[in-house]
Design a protein that fits this description.
CATH architecture of the largest domain: Alpha-Beta Complex
Low-confidence stretches: 7-45
CATH topology of the largest domain: Creatine Amidinohydrolase
Structural class: alpha+beta
Largest sheet: 6 strands, mixed
Number of helices: 15
CATH superfamily of the largest domain: Creatinase/methionine aminopeptidase superfamily
Distance between the termini: 56 Å
Shape: globular
CATH class of the largest domain: Alpha Beta
Helix content: 25-40%
């Protein structure tokens, strides 16, 4: 088992050669033995890591963000190393995995969005910059038999003056524990050497989608002999879908902060959707989240019947419901919560009946999120559909299992983690196991249509919690967001 370099080095100080700082950080050779360089040894001096600059927080520069040993909030260098080892073990002998960092996305012209790393790249490396490629090269059948190559942008004082600090090549080795770190500019020359003895390449970079990196584009366009390729996502999904205690703790923190913010919102009187939207974003951030996990749904009245209503630019009217689907992100892990409550703070009889019908079914679904129940998300969806039929018929709805999708058109749940819809492609037919994190979100959306009872028309109700599956009982990650009718009404 590899021991991450970060855990055994003197955490607060780096040994750097005496030369200009930009050169020292950009030169991979500055910390390799002279025997490997074919040159004389350099004279080294000790520099405090807190005096250096990085493109993302490290403990020495941001002790208020990261604890010793962590690469990202809550996740240690050791956990990242264990993830890479698990991936290598899951790969066939003589294979490599190639993962490209996400590109910076632009809103328009020179205006860019906040950078968001590719989830698989982040999960394996903790590296949160673009213009990077990670290569996991399997070298044997034992756990830890692999080489971690990381190709990144080197330090460059002039470019950093304009675009912000970078981690640099040396940090890729000394902080992020790459076995071999080099400038991204050398990737084209190094890739053929890495692939020379490889029989299989695991990657989600497809030939029909031109990679942004020229070397990868050349690999897939080459007409000559090259290794076979296979999808990386199904392999990494099986590893990512089971959350570690540290990942669950991050999601619980996000759920706690987000749940309290939504409960606080229920206490107040709102007239505009955009004001409630802004309040939630602010509360998530000011109380410890990185920010919102996604654009929230803040819908009044019949707009709640649009599942992904996100323009949030209308007004609330007395006698209507407010539906909020929102959540914060902590350490890049998300929570996903939906709550529905009356604009007035007091349920009308019809609102109470419809809300209670959804809540009863949601309680049943949450209770099934345990390994001992031996059910899948698809199983819970079928149970939810039957439950909604049973609850709605006494309220006057002419509905059956064959027509319930007219009122409940979406699935009851999905996996969550680094992404709101985590591990894309991982099946909902898989039996839930300890460490799976999912949502349970039944809803009833009643169109203004003569088929349905008049006093429910135009109402939309969804109740959603983020859940971590345990052996015998579910761990509700979003319990601070109240949902019982008595509790909601008591807030005002």
């Amino acid at each position: 088992m590899k021991i991450p370099r970060m855990l055994c080095r003197r955490a607060a100080r780096w040994q750097l050669p005496i030369k200009p700082l930009g050169d020292a950080l950009s030169s991979r050779s500055s910390h390799l033995p002279a025997s490997r360089l074919g040159q004389s040894r350099k004279c080294y001096s000790t520099v405090s890591a807190s005096a250096l600059t990085f493109g993302q927080p490290v403990h020495e520069t941001h002790p208020h963000v990261l604890k010793p040993g962590e690469l990202t909030p809550g996740i240690t260098a050791q956990e990242y190393a264990d993830r890479r080892a698990a991936l290598a073990k899951s790969m066939t002998d003589g294979s490599v995995a190639i993962i490209q960092a996400a590109d910076l996305q632009y809103k328009s012209g020179a205006v860019f969005h906040p950078y968001r790393q590719d989830s698989n790249f982040l999960w394996l490396t903790g590296w949160n910059e673009g213009d990077a490629v990670a290569v996991i090269q399997k070298t044997g059948s034992m756990l830890g038999d692999y080489i971690f190559h990381l190709f990144v942008k080197p330090k460059d004082a002039r470019e950093e003056q304009w675009s912000g600090y970078r981690n640099g090549v040396q940090a890729a080795e000394d902080v992020f524990n790459a076995d071999e770190a080099r400038s991204i500019d050398s990737f084209g020359a190094m890739l053929p050497q890495i692939l020379e003895s490889s029989r299989m390449v695991y990657t989600d970079i497809h030939p029909h989608k031109t990679p942004t990196n020229a070397a990868l584009a050349k690999l897939f366009s080459s007409q000559g002999p090259r290794p076979s390729t296979t999808a990386l996502q199904p392999v990494i999904n099986k590893l990512r879908v089971i959350k570690s205690p540290a990942e669950v703790a991050n999601m619980r923190r996000a759920g706690q902060i987000s749940g309290r913010a939504i409960t606080e919102a229920m206490k107040r009187v709102w007239t505009k959707e955009k004001d409630l939207h802004a309040f939630l974003d602010y509360e998530f951030t000011i109380n410890g989240c990185d920010g919102p996990a996604y654009i929230p749904v803040v819908a009044g009245g019949e707009r709640a019947n649009c599942i992904h209503y996100t323009v949030n630019n209308n007004t609330f009217k007395d006698g209507e419901f407010i539906l909020v689907d929102a959540g914060g992100e902590y350490g890049t892990y998300i929570t996903d919560i939906t709550r529905t409550w009356p604009v007035s703070g007091k349920f009308t009889p019809a609102q109470r009946d419809l809300y209670e019908a959804v809540l009863k079914v949601q309680r049943t679904g949450v209770a099934l999120c345990r390994q001992s129940a031996n059910v899948s998300l698809d199983d819970i969806h079928r149970i939810t559909a039957r439950g909604l039929v049973e609850q709605l018929k006494p309220l006057g709805f002419d509905v059956s299992l064959s027509t319930i999708d007219q009122l409940f058109p979406h699935h009851v749940g999905h996996y969550i983690g680094l992404d709101v819809h985590d591990c894309p492609g991982y099946g909902r037919r898989e039996a839930l196991k300890r460490g799976h994190c999912v949502t349970i979100e039944p809803g009833v959306y009643v169109p203004d249509d003569e088929r349905w009872p008049r006093h429910f028309r135009g109402m939309g109700v969804r109740i959603e919690d983020s859940i971590c599956v345990d052996d015998e009982s579910p761990l509700v990650l979003s319990t601070e967001a109240v949902k019982e009718i008595a509790d909601i009404e008591a807030l005002r």
